[in-house]
Amino acid sequence: MKRARLILNIITILLVLFQILGYIGRNITHRHTTGTNLVAYYIGFNMPVILAAILFTMSWYLKRKIQKKESQTLIDSIGKE
Questions:
Q1: DSSP label at 46?
Q2: At 30, phi and psi to the nearest 5?
Q3: Among 39, 46, 76, 78, which residue's beta carbon has the most beta carbons within 10 A?
Q4: In angstroms, rounded to a whole number, what is the distance separating the alpha carbons of residues 61 and 40?
Q5: Where does residue 8 rank: exposed (0-12), middle (13-18), buried (19+ CB within 10 A)?
Q6: Quick one: which of 48, 46, 62 has its CA closest to 8?
Q7: 5, 63 in Cβ contact below 8 A?
Q8: How many helices, marked H, and strands, marked E, lie in the chain?
Q9: What is the pLDDT of residues 61-77, one digit of tens each?
Q10: Contact predicate 12/59, CB 8 Å
Q11: Cα 71 to Cα 76: distance, rounded to the nearest angstrom
Q12: Taking Cα atoms as reference points, which of 54, 49, 64, 55 lies closest to residue 2?
């Protein structure tokens, strides 16, 4: 599980870096675009950030699950010697 969490964190960081590079390289203004086209453009352009947020949330849940499992094994091993 720790390996899966590490992989999720690496992918999340890469997606955020790609998005930052996309913001830096973007030089197009959409002044005449209105309505759903503008909303679709911003959702599509920010898709890496949306995916990064989902993956970060999954990583956070994995971290909680790992901590709960480790604390349970610690509690179970108290009386065993």
A1: T
A2: -115, 75
A3: 46
A4: 30
A5: buried
A6: 62
A7: yes
A8: 3, 0
A9: 999 998 898 888 887 78
A10: yes
A11: 9
A12: 64
b/e for 16-26, b at 16 or more Cβ within 10 A?
beebeeeeeee
Tokens of 1: 């599980």
Total residues belonging to the chain: 81
Q: Which two tokens stand for residue 64?
A: 């909680």
31-42 pLDDT, tens digit per residue, is 777 788 778 888
Q: The whole model's pTM is what?
A: 0.71
